[in-house]
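[job 4471] stage=fold_predict status=RUNNING
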Amino acid sequence: MYDVWKNVLAEVEQKVSKANFSTWFSDISLISTESGNIKIGVKNSFFVKQLRSRYFEDIKSALINNGVEVKSIDFEIQATNKPKIKPREVTRSDDTMRQHITAKRAQLKDVASQETGLNGRYTLSNFVIGSNNDLAVSAARSIINAPGTSYNPFFLYGGSGLGKTHLIQAIGNEILKNNPKAKVLYIPMPHFYADFVDAVQNNKGKEFHKKFQKLDVLIVDDIQSIVGKEKSQEEFFTIFNDLYQLNKQIIIASDRLPNQIKTMDERLASRLTWGGAFDLQLPKFEDKCAILKSKAEFDGIEIEDEAIEYIAENINTNIRDLESELAKINLIADVRGLTPLELIRSGAVSVQKTSKMHSVSARNIIDKVARYYQITTKELCGQSRVSNINNARQVAMFLLSKELGLSTNKIGAEVGGRDHSTVMHGIEKIENNLKLNFTLRDQIEEIKEKIYG
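[job 4471] inference complete, writing structure tokens
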């Protein structure tokens, strides 16, 4: 059966891109083919969804071509070896478990030397793939396999707490695993700026430049911090060109696209996206569950699926907040001698969807949006379809949904009696625009500051 599956994967590999094959097929396995009922093992529910919707026919065709009878194909999430939680049995404080975790972390830290600036804990194995990041991960795998040959430069952007730093450092760590002699440097832009200023003040500008010329991989985080620093931009522009001409891998992370970064040199902004720009988006419910499970396993936390779903359902900001909530619930459960689910059911801890929402009303949001866009509340809730009024109305719908969690029917009633489909269209339009329109993203953040200020 192993040889057959190997041949099936080889055939599928010919039909899909190298990056997609690496992402979706490297960690799946054939469980059984009994009576034509094919069972394939996968890591999580997101893999089930993606394989069924995008690659089902490719898998089926490859199986048939290799002599396998196919009546049905089912994808099964392979269970971990972690034991089920027993009521009121708290194993997280077990000394053996803690020693294992400490040893594992120490081993990870040894992956990269201090000279690289990398944190050894950031790896692809503990970076959860979801619909919010799968394209970026596919590109990252291609870079790891052949640095400097594709997606160069690699530009990654997205909001705070979505995993940018994790992914770009994971690329560096994986490259070092493949080639320990590779010269890799991770540096946040504020550090680049501080080091450059120090070098200039001490007449060591040439030494500073030579340090970067020797690199095989340069990873720069928070490139948006270069705003207003003209000399640093010039130096970075020169370093960028030198490395690019030598086919050295350049990896950049930012909270927005280069053309959205004020005062950035146009030449530099253009070059940063030569290899393509990839964004990290807010994770969906299934992605959040997978992220929490992965984090729990890595940290040795025993937590029930229902407790994970509770956290995922209520935290709608970013991955950092998800992991923070998991740690908080785990700590309190440890102290009280309960499992996380028992703690949640006891009412001793509760996750708020929005920490300040209790002091904000729907009318308050509508008023603030209308004032921000310099229109009246009556116009926003009226029947006008003028572009600026319609845009303000859709932003209000979006905020009523995301900040207060109102139903589409309730939102429709609040903004002038709109129906369900109109509200859904408005919310989805803003969600889609936020992926690339950083001006809109800034506007919404400013409105939220006014709402909660």
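[job 4471] summary: Confidence is low (pLDDT under 50) at residues 80-95, 104-113, 354-358.
[job 4471] exit 0
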